[in-house]
Amino acid sequence: MLYVLTALKCEAAALTGLPGQVVVTGVGDRCIPALGKTTLAPQDRVLNIGCCAGKMPGLYLASCIENLSTGKRYYPDIRSDSVLPEMKLVTSSSVVTEVRDDLLYDMEAALICEWALKTIPPSNISVLKAVSDDGTKMPSANDITRLLRDHLPEIEETAKQLADEPARQDYEAYPERLADELKLSQYMRNELASLWHYSAVSGRSNDMEALLDNMRSEGRIPVKDKKAGKEILDEIYAYLR
Q1: Helix residue spans in 29-94 (DSSP H)
Q2: Distance (Å, whole) CA 54 – CA 169
Q3: What is the pTM of this model?
Q4: Which of 130, 164, 198 is the last residue of a domain?
Q5: In terms of residue numbers, what domain contains 53?
Q6: Are 129 and 236 members of one domain?
Q7: What is the tally of structural domains in the chain?
Q8: What is the pLDDT of residues 45-93, one digit of tens each?
Q9: 47 with 19: CB under 8 angstroms?
């Protein structure tokens, strides 16, 4: 089953003809009760679609979603056959009024990823966001519906690919020795697993391994403490962005 999750009814109004089931979650942390009523199975797929704030108009595939409240980061699948531009998305608990050129802003995606990843792998999740404003003026409901309808062909293609794609075999897990060498907490181990997966699906496994080899040759791995391990993890993230 493909679940198409969107925050607003005016967004859902544009999403006619998509495969799967459209679920209106509500805005921000109001999505949590709706997510709790949606039961995922391990082979289900999730497509989060909606509007966001940003400076560059267009429809984007979120390559990384960061929760500004917790600092946690999530890495949905990067589809090799997608022609959509990629950008990092940050989820804020409040409306953002100032935006950066290289970021998108919403209020639900990180919460959706946290919920979904308890059951399904990153390869079963995609997040599409259309820039509707720059944070200085909120668009009307009609504006949002029209915007998503303008992007409906690309949305339909992504939804169809996600719904029809056969289940993938898991990618080779990162060596447990690496997490031990970095002295990672359990949450940071989960983030390393997501980065390892991201490097595989984006075709950058060799880059990842070369970066780690260089760090070892420089004597930076193994690390002395968790703080140094977190710094290595952040450097891996920045390298793969």
Answers
A1: 31-36
A2: 35
A3: 0.75
A4: 164
A5: 2-164
A6: no
A7: 2
A8: 999 999 999 999 999 999 899 999 988 888 887 666 678 999 999 999 8
A9: no
